[in-house]
Amino acid sequence: MLTRPRIEGLGLALLVAVVDRIVKAVMVGPLMLRDLGVIDLLPFFDLRYAENYGVSFGMFTATSMEMRYGLIIVTALIALGVTVWMLRETLRGDILALGLVLGGALGNIYDRLTLGYVIDYADLHIGEWRPFAIFNLADVAITFGVLILLARSFKSREKPNDSGDHTATENA
Fold first, then answer.
1. C-alpha 87, offset from chain centre
2. Total-model pTM
3. Is 40 considered catalytic here?
């Protein structure tokens, strides 16, 4: 059943995917990042064009058409799993976090389907040291969605029952 929180989660996923598409189009279009390679913005942040043929941090690089389609299928199955989870979830916070994950996944899947790689452009660094691979808005949405889910799961762990019945904890 599509409750208001689920509709909000699906809407957030769509918003993230659309904004991701727009930002990537601006990067390769008006900003011509593909041609320039790098636009220096701040001492610790640049726009740097990169084509990611793998998944996170360039792992599992698709070196053939079969591997490319394999990555698309695997990421699409993960997105489908996130969608099913979102449609079964009842907690609004978790639904919205799943919306972030789904939207980011859809943005990157779109790139992979249409281009064969994911466009990355955000380069956070300290001097020459880069604590992260070059990333994009979709990656940020996925990361924040997962972090929110993890934080919420740690926060919601069962607390001891204060009803006076301590037999379960005493026997453990």
1. 18
2. 0.85
3. no
Q: Which of 20, 111, 123, 139 is catalytic?
A: 139
Distance of CA 58 to the CA centre of its chain: 15
| Rounded Cα–Cα distance for residues 85 and 108 (Å) | 20
Per-residue pLDDT of 32-51, as tens digits, reads: 999 999 999 999 999 999 99
Beta bridge partners, 52, equal 118
The one catalytic residue in 20, 94, 111, 120 is 120
What's the chain look like in SS3? CCCHHHHHHHHHHHHHHHHHHHHHHHHHCCCCHHHHCEEEEECCEEEEEEEECCCHHHCCCCCCHHHHHHHHHHHHHHHHHHHHHHHHCCCHHHHHHHHHHHHHHHHHHHHHHHHCCEEEEEEECECCECCCCCECHHHHHHHHHHHHHHHHHHHCCCCCCCCCCCHHHHCC
| CB burial string 67-94: b at 16+ within 10 A, e below | ebeebbeebeeebeebbeebeebeeeeb
139 is catalytic: yes
